[in-house]
């Protein structure tokens, strides 16, 4: 998310998430050492078509913000080999887990940005993304921290600029108060149309949504996710 300049000086983006919590297991460390140099994105200097990050022609580019351990991203990439996937995750344990999956499944259509997604989004050309996922972002439940939530009006402005008209913006969260925040912010943004027509549309995942360990754990603990799908007008 670009922040407004003060006296001509741009305020740097701040990330509040943890980079790493514990040492990596040998398998994950080895996979990251092998895979990440080949699939990590170098921040371009100028506005760029994200298709250029792939070394083969891709039909579309789908962008996932905060991929966790990469289960959803791996599932989508495996089932859509002609689509280029860009996953953003500053938490290095998650990056390492995704690298294991890329290595095991020999996937060629994933690129990783192991930093704050907003830094990369600033470098994309307008209308260059075909789908965007924001899955289980940090809820920042305390009122004084709400300004840290990823979805703000300014962020939605930028997402709207990057998505092609008619494409999909999907979100999910198992935090009820954050679900209300995401729905309100996006529903009242003029660039997006909520696709739900009945309660099951937000209570049940889309047909191509894989079951993940995080999602299953939430259901078992009485925290069923809300699935929010919007179309870029």
Count of individual beta strands? 7
Widest sheet: strand ordering:
3-2-1-4-5-7-6
Radius of gyration from the alpha-carbon trace, in angstroms: 17 Å
Assembly classification: single chain
Biggest pleated-sheet summary: 7 strands, mixed
What pattern of helices and strands is seen along the backbone? HEHEHEHEHEHEHHE
| Straight-line N-to-C gap | 20 Å
Structural class: alpha/beta
| CATH architectural label | 3-Layer(aba) Sandwich
Percentage of residues in helical conformation: 25-40%
Summed up, the helix count is 8
Which fold does the CATH topology refer to?
Answer: Rossmann fold
Q: Quick one: overall form?
A: globular
Amount of beta strand? 15-25%
CATH class: Alpha Beta
Low-pLDDT segments, ≥5 res: 1-12
Give the tally of structural domains.
Answer: 1
User: What is the fourth-level CATH superfamily?
Assistant: Vaccinia Virus protein VP39
Overall pLDDT: 91
């Amino acid at each position: 998310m670009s922040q407004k300049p003060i006296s001509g000086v741009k305020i740097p983006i701040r990330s509040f998430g943890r980079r790493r919590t514990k040492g990596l297991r040998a398998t994950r460390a080895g996979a990251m050492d092998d895979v990440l140099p080949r699939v990590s994105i170098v921040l371009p200097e100028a506005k760029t078509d994200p298709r250029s990050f792939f070394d083969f022609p891709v039909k579309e580019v789908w962008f996932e913000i905060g991929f966790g351990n990469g289960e959803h991203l791996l599932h989508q990439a495996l089932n859509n080999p002609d689509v280029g996937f860009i996953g953003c995750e500053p938490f290095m344990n998650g990056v390492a887990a995704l690298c294991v999956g890329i290595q095991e499944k020999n996937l060629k259509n994933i690129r990783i940005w192991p930093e704050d997604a907003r830094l990369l989004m600033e470098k994309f050309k307008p209308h260059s993304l075909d789908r965007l996922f924001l899955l289980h972002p940090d809820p920042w439940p305390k009122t004084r921290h709400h300004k840290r939530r990823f979805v703000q009006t300014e962020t939605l402005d930028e997402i709207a600029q990057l998505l092609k008209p008619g494409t999909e913006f999907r979100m999910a969260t198992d935090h009820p108060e954050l679900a209300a925040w995401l729905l309100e912010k996006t529903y009242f943004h003029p660039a997006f149309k909520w696709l739900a027509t009945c309660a099951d549309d937000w209570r049940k995942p889309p047909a191509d949504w894989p079951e993940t360990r995080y999602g299953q754990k939430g259901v078992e603990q009485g925290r069923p996710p809300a699935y929010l799908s919007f179309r870029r007008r």
